[in-house]
Amino acid sequence: MKKLLIFNSGMPYYEDEIFKDKDYYNNPITCQLTPRPDFILLHSVFNEVFDVDCLDLELELGIPGPTRGCDISSEDFLIKGLDILLSKEFDILAFPCHTSGHYLSSKFFAEEIKKYNKDILIVIGGYHPNNAVDDFLYDDSPFDHVVLGDVYGWMDYIEQYGFDIGNNRVIKSNKDYPMPISTPPHKIPYYATKDTHSVGMYLSKGCLWVDKCSFCAEFKKDWVVISVEESLKLVEEIILHSNPQRISFNDALFGQTSKWRKSFLHGLKLLCDKLEWKGYFWIGTRTEMLDDNDIQLLSELNIEVDFGTDSLSVDMLKIMNKTYQPNRYLNKLLETNKKLVDNKIKHRIYVIINHPGETIETLNQLNVFMEKNIDSFRNKYTFISFSSYIVYPGTLSFSLVEKYKRDYGTIFGDLGWWKRNKNQNFYSRLVFPSSDFILPAFQKEKKKFIGFMKDSNQYSYHLWGSSERNWSYYENKQII
Question: What is the pLDDT of residues 56-81, one digit of tens each?
């Protein structure tokens, strides 16, 4: 049986020097998931065909840079990482290149492995290959095959492997497969002896809004999910054998059908009672998906809910293609927020600033909304979090670059930031969203929003902890 290594090459170039406080990434709960959800999903796909091992350099060496809680330099990360990689035995090297930030390191390690042994088969898949396939098809590229279509592309690859794949360098899934069930970490030798304090997993793939939100790199629209029974069985096995402090359901959009969602949440409550588990869950969803029954079910669990609200400005919501009815959308946010607070459910409202088209007027709309509704957010259970817009290849916004330049005067600092070997985090966000950016009033409105956010979040810091406080501080400095 061929030996296959699932390999996370890390993001050694994503660091920046803006934020020096390491508490966020040193916090055992808020740091990276162990194991990675893409690893345990791919392990289940590969395991029946190959002798599978895993290697996560971020777990072995940390994440380079002052913002990531690790003092290792990018250069040392690559050198030490290569030594660790070469200590492994494998016939096939599989990169789940999850983000654009993984591109340059995957390229480095693939080229080095080909120098070491040209007969090793190197295959790469994930979000970046799916959205920027040409980055892997250059002359003398070490990548033998580029897999498109997320986990389903890998399933096509396995089906073709051993048959006549010939010169078919790009493998794209055109088939409908059932959603694979992740391998519990205790059954994976690499993770069996590691501290699995924070386990992430996928129960589904796809998002009904995949062709809507301008900034999102998700590409699968059809929603495919594990049955409620199989999902609960997987969660139970993980609790019994790993007993993590947190279990995250990392689906692009959790529970997209009401029947599945309610049945699963009810089953989680029964499972937690049965096992007397004291950890907590995390999900990401949209406010308009939750009804009173969902909120009642959530109130019976120790759970955190993230809402990708993405803007509180009616104009920006339309520019982002988030909704065609922004006023109704924001009213639903306020309604859901109140019900969650009344039911003592911790939740985070996530906002993106600096998306192309952001102007003094849109920031003013954001601040008017915050000022009008600030009392709704001054509580123990609501936390407002935000980030600067990041330009990712394959997104709707990436395809509209010329339109943004023409309509708003947007300036993009670097549309190929993932090929830089330093400060990728900074350059990925280096976007001047409109000609308003240079005006003092633009920065004044930004700082005003930060003031509203600090005002509301001071009431929930004792629940969210210092990690959220520090992360918000970092975002504040970066966004200004």
Answer: 998 898 877 655 556 788 899 999 99
Residue 354 and residue 431: Cα distance in Å, rounded? Answer: 7
Per residue, the 3-state secondary structure of the chain, as one string, reads CCEEEEEECCCCCCCCCCCCCCHHHHCCCCCCCCCCHHHHHHHHHHCCCCEEEEEEHHHHHCCCEHHHCECCCHHHHHHHHHHHHHCCCCCEEEEECCCHHHHHHHHHHHHHHHHHCCCCEEEEECHHHHHCHHHHCCCCCCCCEEEECHHHHHHHHHHHCCCCCCCCCEEECCCCCCCCCCCCHHHCHHHHCCCCCEEEECCEECCCCCCCCCCCCCCCCCCEECCHHHHHHHHHHHHHHHCCCEEEECCCCCCCCHHHHHHHHHHHHHHHHHHCCCCEEEEEECHHHCCHHHHHHHHCCCEEEEEEEECCCHHHHHHCCCCCCHHHHHHHHHHHHHHHHHCCCEEEEEEEECCCCCCHHHHHHHHHHHHHHHHHHCCCCEEEEEEECCCCCCCHHHHCHHHHHHHHCCEECCCCHHHCCCCHHHHHCCEECCHHHHCHHHHHHHHHHHHHHHHHHCCCHHHHCHHHHHHHHHHHHHHC
The domains located in the chain, with CATH, are: 3-172 (3.40.50.280), 196-479 (3.80.30.20)
- Prediction pTM value: 0.90
Q: Is the peptide bond before 142 cis (omega within 30 degrees of 0)?
A: no
Q: What is the maximal distance between C-alpha atoms in the chain?
A: 64
Q: Render pLDDT for 399-454 as a digit per residue (tens, 0 to 9).
A: 999 999 999 999 999 999 999 998 898 899 999 999 998 889 998 998 999 999 98
Residue range 138-196, pLDDT digits in tens: 999 999 999 988 777 888 777 766 444 456 688 877 677 889 999 999 999 999 888 88
Q: Are strands 382-388 and 411-412 parallel, antiparallel or unpaired?
A: unpaired
